[in-house]
Write a structure and sequence with these properties.
Mean pLDDT of chain A: 94
Radius of gyration of chain A: 13 Å
Oligomer: heterodimer
Number of helices of chain A: 0
Number of strands of chain A: 11
Helix content of chain B: under 10%
Number of strands of chain B: 11
Helix content of chain A: under 10%
Low-confidence stretches of chain A: none
Distance between the termini of chain B: 37 Å
Largest sheet of chain A: 6 strands, mixed
Order of helices and strands of chain B: EEEEEEEEEEE
């Protein structure tokens, strides 16, 4: 049973537009959520996180929204840049604990 | 500060063999976690070590084991390799609520 789901395997966006990556979870015990970016042949790089006590967190071009009632979170990238092209993983944990449950990732392609 | 390092970066083994992978966390980090990444399953948690003790374990068979040394370096071992063990093995060290990943070891089992 997959507790963290990223239903879109891929997403294509034009440079300058908004990229919206979605993630759903089923475990109501999750209270800390993270987004990671991964380039080929590299490990995932932490992007942004959000605690369940918030519904929005911003960091530069990246904003994460959390809808606890829908068990849904999304990552918005504005404006999108070609360098953002990578695989994005959504992850969740319980109590900020070190065990992360990951989604299967969404490949974002930003074209010039 | 140097990042998380993993050795070797690439490894080719045959079925039935065993393999040991190494991870050096960021200096000062005491928690090391291991993950397996495969195309079909994504990133799956293997185990976590903190101060030389296994603190948590994922749902993997006993062929997968690990340990942590007093300097926080960690190793994971896979015995009796199967074709399905071919994957990218990632190690992460933790500071606060953030995990920092190494580049991974690409294991191919033939």
């Amino acid at each position: 049973d997959q507790q963290v789901k990223q239903n879109s395997p891929s997403l294509s966006v034009q440079e300058g537009r908004i990229s919206i990556l979605n993630c759903d979870y089923t475990n109501s015990m999750f209270d800390y959520f993270l987004w990671y970016k991964k380039y080929p042949a590299e490990g995932p790089t932490f992007l942004i996180s959000i605690s369940s006590i918030k519904d929005k967190n911003e960091d530069g071009r990246f904003t994460v929204f959390l809808n606890k009632s829908a068990k849904h979170l999304s990552l918005h990238i504005v404006p999108s840049q070609p360098g953002d092209s990578a695989v994005y993983f959504c992850a969740a944990s319980v109590g900020g604990y070190s065990t992360l449950t990951f989604g299967k990732g969404t490949m974002l392609l930003v074209s010039p | 500060k140097a990042g998380v390092t993993q050795t070797p970066r690439y490894l080719i083994k045959t079925r039935g063999q065993q393999v040991t992978l190494s991870c050096s966390p960021i200096s000062g980090h005491r928690s090391v976690s291991w993950y397996q990444q495969t195309p079909g399953q994504g990133l799956q948690f293997l185990f976590e070590y903190f101060s030389e003790t296994q603190r948590n374990k994922g749902n993997f068979p006993g062929r997968f084991s690990g340990r942590q040394f007093s300097n926080s370096r960690s190793e994971m071992n896979v015995s009796t390799l199967e074709l399905g063990d071919s994957a990218l093995y990632l190690c992460a060290s933790m500071e606060g609520l953030e995990q920092f990943f190494g580049p991974g070891t690409r294991l191919t089992v033939l």
